[in-house]
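Morning. Coffee machine broken again, so started the prediction first thing and wrote up yesterday's gels while waiting. Chain of 126 residues, entered below exactly as on the submission form.
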Amino acid sequence: METLYPTYFGHEQLEVYHLALGFVSEVYRLSETFPKSEQFGLTNQLRRAATSVALNIAEGKGRGSDRDFAKFLYQSRGSLLESVSALQISVKLGFSGLDQIEALLAEADRINAKLNALINSLDTGV
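Came back before lunch.
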C-alpha cells in the first residue's frame, strides 16, 4: 500500500481507504466523458457517492469507538453500492459502455469485501 503523501491519521493505515481513494479517482476520470447536460445530474451523483465511500471510512475511524466506526462503514458500503448503481445507469443511458465500467465494478466488489471484513472484525452487534 503505497501513498503519495505522509500518513498522520488512523484511517490512512487502512487498505480499504486507499482502495476507495483509487475508486474515486477512476470514477472522476470516467465521468468526465459524460454529457455536459449531466453535470448536475448523474455525474454529480456518481461522484458524490464514490467520494462518500472514502469520506465515511475516514470520519468513522475518527469517531473513536468500534460501534461508531462500524456505523460509518455501513454508510460507506451504502455509498459504494449507490456508485455501482450509478455506473450501471450510465451504461443504460449510453454514457459509458460495459467495457468501460467492468474494472470499476471489479474494484467495487473488492472494496465491498474489504468493508464487510472490517465490519465483521469489529463485531459490535450494530
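The chain has one domain: 12-122. Going to sketch it on the whiteboard this afternoon.
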